[in-house]
Amino acid sequence: MSQLDEILTFNQQFVADRGYEPYLSNKLPRKKLAVLSCMDTRLVELLPRALNLRNGDAKIIKNAGALVSDPFDSTMRSILVGIYELSVEEVLVIGHYGCGMAGIDPDSVLGKMTQRGISPDTLSTLGHAGIDLHRWLAPLSSIPDSVAHTTETIRNHPLMPTTIPVHGLAIDPESGRLDLISRDPRV
Which domains are present in the chain? Predict the structure, then answer.
Protein backbone atom coordinates (compact mmCIF):
# COMPACT_ATOMS: atom_id res chain seq x y z
CA MET A 1 0.00 0.00 0.00
CA SER A 2 1.38 3.45 -0.89
CA GLN A 3 1.66 6.32 1.58
CA LEU A 4 -1.25 8.02 -0.19
CA ASP A 5 -3.47 4.94 0.14
CA GLU A 6 -2.60 4.64 3.85
CA ILE A 7 -3.42 8.32 4.36
CA LEU A 8 -6.74 8.08 2.54
CA THR A 9 -7.75 4.94 4.45
CA PHE A 10 -6.84 6.54 7.78
CA ASN A 11 -8.63 9.76 6.82
CA GLN A 12 -11.91 8.00 6.08
CA GLN A 13 -11.91 6.54 9.59
CA PHE A 14 -10.74 9.84 11.13
CA VAL A 15 -13.71 11.67 9.61
CA ALA A 16 -16.15 8.88 10.46
CA ASP A 17 -14.95 8.93 14.09
CA ARG A 18 -15.20 12.74 14.16
CA GLY A 19 -11.51 12.95 15.07
CA TYR A 20 -11.44 16.51 13.76
CA GLU A 21 -13.64 17.93 16.52
CA PRO A 22 -10.80 18.87 18.95
CA TYR A 23 -9.21 20.89 16.13
CA LEU A 24 -12.21 22.98 15.12
CA SER A 25 -11.31 26.65 14.80
CA ASN A 26 -11.87 29.50 12.40
CA LYS A 27 -9.40 31.00 9.93
CA LEU A 28 -8.39 33.94 12.14
CA PRO A 29 -5.52 33.19 14.54
CA ARG A 30 -6.63 33.59 18.16
CA LYS A 31 -3.22 34.93 19.24
CA LYS A 32 -3.01 37.19 16.15
CA LEU A 33 0.40 35.73 15.44
CA ALA A 34 2.24 34.59 12.30
CA VAL A 35 5.24 32.28 12.67
CA LEU A 36 7.75 31.71 9.88
CA SER A 37 9.75 28.57 10.61
CA CYS A 38 11.72 25.86 8.88
CA MET A 39 10.09 22.77 7.40
CA ASP A 40 12.37 20.50 9.49
CA THR A 41 10.42 17.43 10.60
CA ARG A 42 11.68 17.79 14.18
CA LEU A 43 9.67 21.01 14.51
CA VAL A 44 6.26 19.72 13.40
CA GLU A 45 5.02 19.14 16.95
CA LEU A 46 7.89 20.55 19.01
CA LEU A 47 7.67 24.15 17.78
CA PRO A 48 3.97 24.72 18.59
CA ARG A 49 4.41 23.06 22.01
CA ALA A 50 7.52 25.16 22.77
CA LEU A 51 5.53 28.30 21.87
CA ASN A 52 2.40 27.22 23.77
CA LEU A 53 0.39 27.25 20.54
CA ARG A 54 -2.68 25.18 19.89
CA ASN A 55 -4.59 24.63 16.68
CA GLY A 56 -6.09 27.96 15.61
CA ASP A 57 -3.68 30.16 17.61
CA ALA A 58 -1.32 31.24 14.81
CA LYS A 59 -0.60 31.24 11.11
CA ILE A 60 2.35 28.88 10.62
CA ILE A 61 4.40 29.41 7.45
CA LYS A 62 7.15 26.89 6.72
CA ASN A 63 9.91 26.63 4.17
CA ALA A 64 13.49 25.39 3.91
CA GLY A 65 15.50 27.58 6.27
CA ALA A 66 12.71 29.89 7.51
CA LEU A 67 13.67 32.40 4.83
CA VAL A 68 12.24 35.28 2.91
CA SER A 69 14.56 34.80 -0.04
CA ASP A 70 13.01 37.57 -2.10
CA PRO A 71 10.88 40.48 -0.84
CA PHE A 72 8.10 39.43 -3.20
CA ASP A 73 8.22 35.65 -2.78
CA SER A 74 5.32 33.50 -1.62
CA THR A 75 6.54 33.55 1.99
CA MET A 76 6.34 37.34 2.18
CA ARG A 77 2.97 37.25 0.42
CA SER A 78 1.68 34.82 3.08
CA ILE A 79 2.86 37.11 5.88
CA LEU A 80 1.22 40.15 4.30
CA VAL A 81 -2.05 38.30 3.63
CA GLY A 82 -1.98 37.20 7.27
CA ILE A 83 -1.66 40.82 8.36
CA TYR A 84 -4.11 42.47 5.98
CA GLU A 85 -6.74 39.73 5.72
CA LEU A 86 -6.40 37.44 8.74
CA SER A 87 -5.85 39.69 11.78
CA VAL A 88 -2.13 38.98 12.33
CA GLU A 89 -0.63 41.62 14.64
CA GLU A 90 2.82 40.14 15.35
CA VAL A 91 5.36 38.07 13.40
CA LEU A 92 7.98 35.61 14.67
CA VAL A 93 10.81 34.34 12.47
CA ILE A 94 12.12 31.13 14.04
CA GLY A 95 15.17 29.39 12.64
CA HIS A 96 16.68 26.32 14.29
CA TYR A 97 20.08 25.01 15.18
CA GLY A 98 21.30 22.13 13.06
CA CYS A 99 19.32 23.34 10.02
CA GLY A 100 19.97 21.33 6.87
CA MET A 101 20.12 24.57 4.89
CA ALA A 102 23.28 25.51 6.80
CA GLY A 103 25.11 22.51 5.38
CA ILE A 104 23.54 22.21 1.96
CA ASP A 105 25.94 21.77 -0.96
CA PRO A 106 24.53 23.31 -4.15
CA ASP A 107 26.74 21.13 -6.38
CA SER A 108 25.51 18.00 -4.61
CA VAL A 109 21.86 19.03 -5.01
CA LEU A 110 22.36 19.85 -8.69
CA GLY A 111 24.08 16.49 -9.16
CA LYS A 112 21.13 14.72 -7.56
CA MET A 113 18.81 16.61 -9.87
CA THR A 114 20.60 15.26 -12.93
CA GLN A 115 20.66 11.75 -11.40
CA ARG A 116 16.87 11.99 -11.03
CA GLY A 117 16.35 12.96 -14.66
CA ILE A 118 16.75 16.74 -14.86
CA SER A 119 18.70 17.35 -18.03
CA PRO A 120 22.01 19.25 -17.84
CA ASP A 121 20.61 21.27 -20.77
CA THR A 122 17.74 22.40 -18.51
CA LEU A 123 20.19 23.53 -15.84
CA SER A 124 22.27 25.32 -18.48
CA THR A 125 19.18 27.02 -19.95
CA LEU A 126 18.18 28.28 -16.51
CA GLY A 127 21.68 29.69 -16.06
CA HIS A 128 21.51 31.47 -19.42
CA ALA A 129 18.12 32.88 -18.37
CA GLY A 130 19.81 34.57 -15.40
CA ILE A 131 18.81 32.06 -12.72
CA ASP A 132 21.81 31.41 -10.50
CA LEU A 133 21.02 27.98 -9.08
CA HIS A 134 24.13 28.02 -6.87
CA ARG A 135 22.94 31.24 -5.23
CA TRP A 136 19.38 29.91 -5.00
CA LEU A 137 20.65 26.78 -3.23
CA ALA A 138 23.35 28.54 -1.19
CA PRO A 139 23.81 27.38 2.41
CA LEU A 140 22.92 29.64 5.31
CA SER A 141 26.03 31.29 6.74
CA SER A 142 24.75 31.05 10.31
CA ILE A 143 21.36 30.55 11.89
CA PRO A 144 21.42 33.79 13.95
CA ASP A 145 22.57 35.81 10.90
CA SER A 146 19.93 34.22 8.69
CA VAL A 147 17.16 34.87 11.23
CA ALA A 148 18.32 38.48 11.70
CA HIS A 149 18.45 39.05 7.93
CA THR A 150 14.99 37.59 7.32
CA THR A 151 13.58 39.55 10.26
CA GLU A 152 15.00 42.80 8.84
CA THR A 153 13.72 41.96 5.35
CA ILE A 154 10.19 41.58 6.75
CA ARG A 155 10.39 44.67 9.00
CA ASN A 156 11.64 46.86 6.15
CA HIS A 157 9.33 45.56 3.44
CA PRO A 158 7.63 48.48 1.64
CA LEU A 159 4.18 46.92 2.19
CA MET A 160 4.75 46.05 5.86
CA PRO A 161 2.86 48.20 8.36
CA THR A 162 5.21 49.83 10.88
CA THR A 163 2.77 48.89 13.65
CA ILE A 164 3.49 45.15 13.31
CA PRO A 165 6.38 43.92 15.47
CA VAL A 166 8.67 41.34 13.89
CA HIS A 167 10.94 39.30 16.16
CA GLY A 168 13.62 36.73 15.40
CA LEU A 169 14.36 33.59 17.41
CA ALA A 170 16.19 30.29 17.10
CA ILE A 171 14.96 27.02 18.56
CA ASP A 172 16.99 24.04 19.69
CA PRO A 173 15.31 21.09 17.92
CA GLU A 174 16.30 18.72 20.71
CA SER A 175 15.19 20.64 23.82
CA GLY A 176 12.75 23.22 22.43
CA ARG A 177 14.77 26.05 24.04
CA LEU A 178 14.18 29.41 22.34
CA ASP A 179 16.97 31.97 21.95
CA LEU A 180 16.01 35.57 21.20
CA ILE A 181 17.97 36.80 18.19
CA SER A 182 16.17 40.06 17.49
CA ARG A 183 13.42 41.80 19.44
CA ASP A 184 11.61 44.43 17.40
CA PRO A 185 12.88 47.74 18.78
CA ARG A 186 9.47 49.35 18.24
CA VAL A 187 7.94 47.24 21.03
Answer: 30-103+141-187 (3.40.1050.10), 105-138 (no CATH)
Query: Which residue from 32, 90, 85, 38 is spatially nearest to 61, judged by alpha carbons?
Result: 38
Say what the pTM is.
0.93
Q: pLDDT tens-digit profile of 118-155?
A: 999 999 999 999 999 999 999 999 999 999 999 999 99
Q: How far apart are CA 167 and CA 60, in angstroms?
A: 15
| 91: three-class secondary structure by DSSP | strand
Q: Which residues are within 8 A (CB) of 160 and not within 5 positions of it... i.e. 6 or more apart?
A: 80, 83, 154, 166
Angle between helix 120-128 and 106-115 (nearest 10): 130
The span from the CA of 143 to the CA of 123, in Å, is 29
Rounded CA separation 128/85 (Å): 39
